[in-house]
Amino acid sequence: MVTVALFVKLEAKPGKEKEMEAFLRGGLAVVLQEPATTAWFAIRLGPSTFGIFDAFPDESGRQAHLSGQVAAALMAKAPELLSQPPVIEKVDVLAAKLPG
Q: How many angstroms from the chain centroid is the CA of residue 89?
C-alpha cells in the first residue's frame, strides 16, 4: 500500500527537451534499485514540460528516495537542462490501484 508520493514538475530549457526525456528514461534503472519506491512514472505534460510521479509506502521511503541517486542526479543536471528549478510537491495518496 502506498500512502505518500511526490509530484515533480520540470520545465526543460529550449532545445533541451530530448536530453530531458533521455535523462528521465535513464532514471528508471536507478529507481528499480529502490525497494521503497512502489511506483515511479516519468511523464511528459507538454512540449517542454515534464514530470515525475512516484509513490511510497511511508514517509521514510519518500525521504530515502529524496536523498537517493535520482534526486542527486536531477539536482546536478538541473542548471543544464531546466529553465527553472524543479517544483517538488509532497502529496498524500488517498487511494491507489497497483498491480500485485
A: 10
